[in-house]
Amino acid sequence: MKRIVLLPLCALVLFLAGCWNNRELETLGIAVAMGIDKIDHEYVVTVQLVNPSAVSARQSDTSRAPIVTYQEKGKTIFEAIRRVTKVAPRKTYYPHLKILVIGEELAKDGFAEALDLLSRDPEFRNDFYVVVAKDHPADDVLNVLVPVEKIAAQNMFTKLQTSADVFAPTLALTFGELIKDLTSHGKHAVITGIQLTGDAKEGEKMENLQTSNPKVRLKYTGIAVFKDDKLKGWLNEKESKGYNYIVDNVKSTIVAVPCIDDKKRFLSVELIDADTKLKLNTMKPKPEMSVTVKADANIAEVGCAIDLTKQATVDQIEELAEKDINAKIRSAIKAAQDEFKFDFLGFGEVMHRAEPGYWKKVEKKWDKEFVDITIKSKVTVDIEKLGKRSNSFINEMGD
Amino acid sequence: MLEKGKISVRQFTILVALYTIGTAILIIPSILAAKAKQDAWISGLLGLAIGVAMVIFYWKLSERFQYVNLIEILEKCFGKWIGKSVGFLFFVCYVLLLATFVLRDIGDFMTTVMMVETPIEAIHIIFLIIVLYGVKLGLEVFTRTMELFIPWIVLLLVALFLTLLPQIEVTNILPVFENGMKPIVQSSFSFLVFPFLEMVVFLMIIPYVNRPQDTKKAFMLGTIMGGGLLIFISVLTILVVGPTETARSIYPTYDLTKTINIREFFQRVEALMALIWFITVFVKLLVLTYVSCLGIAQVFELKEYRIIVLPIGLVLYVLSLSIFPSISFLIEFTPVYDLYAFLWCAVFPFVVWLVSLVRGGERNKSGTARTESG
Amino acid sequence: MFRKRPNKKLNNDQAQLTQENSTAQAELAQQGEAFTPELLENLRRIKEILGGSSDLVMTDFILGGHEAALLYMDGMVDKVAINHFFEHINRTPEMMKYSNFLSQEEEGTADFFKLLSTPVNRLDEIRFFREAIRAILAGNAVLLVNSVTHGLVIDSKGHKGRAVTESSTENVVRGPKEAFNENGLINTTLIRRKIKDPRLRVERKVIGNVTQTSVAVIHIHGIANDKLVKEVHARLDKIDIDGILESNYIEEFIQDEVYTPFPTVFNTERPDVVAAALLEGRIAIVIDGTPFVLLVPALFTHFFQAAEDYYQRWDIATLLRLLRISAFFISMLGPAVYIAVINFHQEMLPTPLLISLAAQREGVPFPAIVEALIMEVTLEILREAGLRLPKAIGQTVSIVGALVIGQAAVEAGIISAAMVIVVAITAISNFILPAYNMGISIRIIRFVFMFLAGTFGLYGIAAGLFALALHLCSIRSFGIPYMDPLAPFVPDDMKDTFWRKPIFRLITRPRLISQKNNQRQSKSK
Amino acid sequence: MGYTLITLLIAGLVLLIDRRKLKQYKRKRENRVYFSIFMIGLVMLLIKSAGIEMPSPLNGISYVLKPLTKMM
Question: Where is the chain membrane-spanning (chain D) (predicted)?
């Protein structure tokens, strides 16, 4: 009988003692975005916390800001993060981190040392996006209040995802992928940049939430190129797109091509699916590599009078689109080989897989080798559908 | 006989398969990828092949002695006293030690990635209580329980595979044979030692299968199923996470499940997936604890093994807390351990085999009548 | 962890009890004596044994020139049968011929029997007081004649009972509606009406020193495993108790394992369920005085099979089975998983859900586990209250109570809305299970899991599940592993567990239960 | 201190659970083996709970086998 009494007793003891990992929901400060800057050899960490009662769908309290940011300094990231607890009302909780913003200054100095904590600590996952703040420190970016998606980080997260999916000059790069790039010898890292328009101070105010045309906005611009972990420069939109074509990151995008007869008017071709293959063509006498893009497309918009019912027209459009894409790819390759003079396009990995023996010899000095390699590019675009009209109504309008 | 229960051949297969997967599933990708990198699958297959050969050897050893258990084999080989002492050493220095490692593995895992603030003691106590309860219930009951677990493991693994399918990057396992054979062989040795040589403990369980002569196929099948699964998981990890990250990760499979993300909806399920290795680690620890209790009880000729389950659990608990100070110690110790395990699991049975060959010659002369009394 | 029940100790207690009661012993001794030739003495003795009970009726009359008396218990006999008996002796002119049947006793008695037996119900000859008392108490009438040391028992049992009505605990949409009632005889008849086979065996025994309850063990000879039948009899014979009022009295005596929350004996009030079980080779125990019939062995999967599974098409039945099994898990783990996730593994939640839950928890003063306990206990109270109250009020109380209290608690900020949802789903899932006693087991286990989850999160739940699995595999029902056919895995018997194959595919009987005569139907192409 | 208490509690619990089994085997070999293993466990547990670092058996193994490992 004694045992029957004893078992629940033990359970009770365990229960009373065991609250080690027990964290009640309302005691968590849910961190959704984090920014890292470096000022005078000290890291400055900015953490964006959600204010649940201001965000929740049912009993949302619109008078309060949906997000709060806290900032602290420290010799290491962890020290800074722990210092945040001094100012934050609740213990910050990181698994729901959506986005990590790296300040431009830190990016120029090299940010690798700052990232170890994020890959080591079990509280951090590796599926949040990483972006670089262009022309601003990271904390300015995190302080902006944005409409529609109340949580700024969620806004940035979704925006990056959609633009990467349907427009393609940006790059939705998760932390895990970034680490993979940083450790690869055959590819240098690139990170999308985020930029602030307007006055950073204005963005912190609730008014920014209450207008239909907010004065301060966040927008993604171009791609930052890193050598190892140091920011070396920015790609413009054309090069960024070219980069995405090369690394097979394009899911869907728009190619605007000039009308065949009328160079001033344009028509849009919507790429539905683009598939890129990087290949090593030959090793002798010199290594030669190639980029092959195969894309399926639809006609999305026609801004001039052309006869779409003729196969020849479509062929011409295909050719123009191919040319346009090719130009972008060339510009990206040119940027890599001539401007930056190192390989952020991943040709090194192709070489690694194709010629492991040769790779062993050049691994250490690949960037030098890369500059002299001939890279061919070939693009094929197949236009299959015209949307729900054949010729545009523009054709019928008298001149 | 200390154990009166009998298990079926099918249950034996399941036991072997789950035992192979246990704990290994958590860390094997990083062990395989550490040296062999993207060629992990080759060293995996190599390790599996040698592993199956070893398993057949263990079975032959058991067959040679008419399927009596390990202690009786040793007694027949070396005589009563030497046999018993060697057996005692084997159970204390190898099986019990292995059990402490397994227990510590689950504790370390929990306190490293899932419940950081929980004291490791609490984790160990909870796990041990259930394991000891299982050991007390006996072989028959806990093998039946294993059968209950199988569908869950299959379900979770299929879910794991399907959800990771979109993230596979085939280029991750290229190029093949980049660094030649040497690292592949080195990795496969670790792989051989880690799950396959540990099969030696089944020498204590084969006697309790209802048709021991049929266990050869079951033993091999279980090993191949378990080993195949480990290779599959390793390849999957390398395909999704990449060889370098896999090698650097302490719990690569957990990292693997962390990457599951289907349309932002089905994600963050690693805690559920952790159930797979809870189950397999549970099975492994159960078998090891059971075997050490049975072995020690037999060495001392006790009437039943159940009586010493709790004190052995106590020893296990203390040892598991003080066996090594940190993970770094463990990582450094691994090559030594490989050798140590190799001595116990490969060299030791081989010596037994040799001795039995020498003595077996005599036995044949004196006729079959003496075989039973040995 | 769970000890076998201390059978011996219980029996000792019983023996002690009877020893103390020495007067009762003396009476018992008296009951063992044979009738005397003196009618008056016999009547006096019977009256004495029955303590002059006022419901004992003694009718004096002259039979063949001798004083005779008919004894019966008022209210327990069928008056029609008694009247019939009197009419019969009055109407028989031959009666006079036998006026001196007592002179040659042996022969005479035989004739006496012949004479009386023709039109009346079954007659038994008795010699001892004990037999007379038992007969009277069972509702029969006893005929005693002066200077005859034999008595006659006239079967006149018949008291008002409930008619065969619709089942109140196991309803079906399609299927037979009749249910057992309190009369054991009718119950066995209901079963025999379904199985018209000479191999259906009904063995009666009387259990209960005081209540003298009649218990019938029913099996189909040749289908049920003989060893199992013997085992059932052996366990029933071991029972030594004063009274059996309900089948649970027997259930607790014959179950294999006492320290387990899981039922190892099945009970039902539907004859069709019993018939189906008998056809599978199981054994039924019908107890007089209760509509609930016991079925053994009862395995884990049996508690998820409803009668209607076999009266609906197989695909529907399969779907319902799966639904039931998921409901089983929800009901057992629902609040536990919720607690584990929101207290330990917040990272598992999608961000918007996490934020919404956090906003709801804002201002709730209790930790989640306490919150869950409050809600669960309230719910259990409401449920019990609903059961005990008259039907019409009962339902209102539970619904109104749940709604009003839930709503008010959320409004007052004591409980978060999500917790109300979780607890409500858990409770409803519990109702889906066809077996009420399994539902209770789950309710008990649910609380254990809640504690585990509150202490160790999902790790605690996993540990609890392992212990549960070990425990489930360790118990047996009449020697058959409880988890059969899942563990040990019998692939052929999976046809009627998680899914139900079409009936023409259910060719064999469960292997471990009926070990011979395994074929149920010929294998049609 | 609290740690030592918990240790003793665990040990007591073990004894309590095994009480019946131990009574069953009065002063036999079973009891001797039981208590020797139990004492080893208890002593180690007490040492550990007192905060004294125990030498890990692995160090011994390392010491013996390290040279061999290097050779391989």
Answer: 34-52
ipTM for the predicted complex:
0.89
pLDDT tens, A388-399?
777 777 777 765
Q: Looking at chain A, how many residues does it have?
A: 399
Structure confidence by residue, pLDDT tens digits, A364-390: 888 888 888 888 888 888 888 887 777
Partner residue facing B339 (CB), from D18, D41, D65: D65
**Contact list, B116 vs chain A (CB under 8 Å):** 21, 122-123
DSSP codes, A105-125 = HHHHH--HHHHHHHHHSTT--
What pLDDT is recorded for position B364? 42
Contact A30 C354 (CB under 8 A): yes
Q: Which of C356, C364, C457 sits opposite A56 (nearest CB)?
A: C356
Listed in order, strand segments (DSSP E) in A248-393 are 253-258, 266-282, 288-302, 374-385
| Successive 10-residue mean pLDDT values, chain C, 525 residues | 42 46 55 77 85 83 77 83 77 54 50 55 75 83 79 76 82 88 89 91 89 90 89 92 90 88 92 92 92 92 90 91 92 93 87 86 85 88 82 75 82 87 89 87 91 88 93 91 87 86 86 76 65
User: Between A and B, how many residue pairs show a Cβ–Cβ distance under 8 A?
Assistant: 47
The answer to whether residues C206 and C318 belong to one domain is no
Q: Which two tokens stand for residue B30?
A: 């990083």
Q: Are B236 and B26 in contact (CB under 8 A)?
A: no
Q: Which residue in B264, B269, B270 has the most chain A C-beta atoms within 10 A of its own C-beta, making it the best mutation to test that interface?
A: B264
Q: What is the pLDDT of residues A270-295, one digit of tens each?
A: 888 888 888 888 887 888 888 898 98
What tokens were used for B215? 């266990």
Domain encompassing residue C353: 311-481
Which CATH number applies to A241-399? 3.30.300.210
Reduced 3-state DSSP string for C50-111: CCCCCCEEEEEEEECCEEEEEEEECCCECHHHHHHHHHHHHHCHHHHHHHHCCCCHHHHHHH
Is C496 a member of any domain? no
What does the alpha-carbon distance between residue A130 and residue A114 come to, in Å, rounded to a whole number?
13
Extract the tokens encoding B300. Answer: 């001392």
CATH of domain B9-370: 1.20.1740.10
Residue C2, classed as helix, strand or coil, is: coil
Q: Minimal Cα distance from D6: which residue of A?
A: A13
Same domain, C374 and C475: yes
Name the percent of chain B lying above pLDDT 90. Answer: 29
How do residues C41-55 score in pLDDT, each as one tens digit? 888 888 888 887 888
Torsion angles phi and psi, residue B46, rounded to 5: -60, -50
> In angstroms, how far apart are the furthest CA atoms of chain A?
102
Q: Which chain C residues have a beta carbon less than 8 Å from that of B108?
A: none
- D 6-45 residues inside an 8 A Cβ radius of A: 13, 16-17
Q: Which residues of B2-21 are buried (b: 16+ CB within 10 A; e: fewer)?
A: bbeeebbbbbbbbbbbbbbb
Domain extents in chain B:
9-370
CA atoms of A175 and B191, how far apart (whole Å):
31
Say whether residue D58 is in contact with chain B using an 8 A CB cutoff. yes
Compute the distance between CA of residue A266 and CA of residue A251 in angstroms, rounded to an integer: 22
The number of residues making up chain C comes to 525
